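Dear support,

I submitted the protein below through the web form. The confirmation email said the job was done, but the results page showed an empty box. After a refresh the structure appeared. I'm attaching both so you can tell me whether what I see now is the final result or a partial one.
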Amino acid sequence: MPEENVSVPKHVAIIMDGNGRWAKKRHLPRVMGHHEGVRAVERTVRAARDAGIAHISLYAFSTENWRRSPSEVGGLMGLFRYYVSSKIDALKAEGARIRFAGNLAGLPEDIRRLLRKAEGETASCTAIDMVVCLNYGGRQEILEAINAFLENCSRDTLAGSELPCLTEELLRRYFYLPDLPDPDLIIRTSGELRMSNFWLWQGAYSELYFCDTFWPDFGEEELDKALRAYAERERRYGGA
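What the results page shows now:
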């Protein structure tokens, strides 16, 4: 991993892409690519923790992924059930606090119960903050935040309070995880060069890194390459 004097991002976000193509290349069902992707999650989170990264967020299932075939969606839901129910002890042993971002109300109730259990049982872990984005869409998050703000404003107005001016700081309070710092680095695997509705607000000034590796083949070596590329960037946030 990077030397101690190399700049390490506080929050790394990953668009985990290429599971299906990884499986197709090997003449396997697409769901097998997703299973291998889980192994990539485990080794990448461990490598991120060892590198000193405080937060890692993983784009696991988008609001658009419901458009996939019923069999693939069903396989993914089954995989989520298996992973969350069977990996809590392993996550605790790694010191990983697990949290979830997205419209969780749109997920099956049994999965929601598992998510709440995982969050509760790992809440005291401090080695790394692992955020899994499920049924997540950046546009949806922004719309939900604005609508929640307006709903609160309506109640406050009825109570006689003055309508507040909407600011960036105020809007952030209504995001899924308002305390999560913006990603310093967003990685996308499999050679695709787009954001796919991920962290649209939070990623405004994120450094972007694209690699051709399919997600099931991702791990410490590829993360190391991304971190070294990040360390060579100069982040000016619009300044000179």
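Response: this is the final, complete result; the empty box was a page-load delay. The chain has eight helices and six strands.
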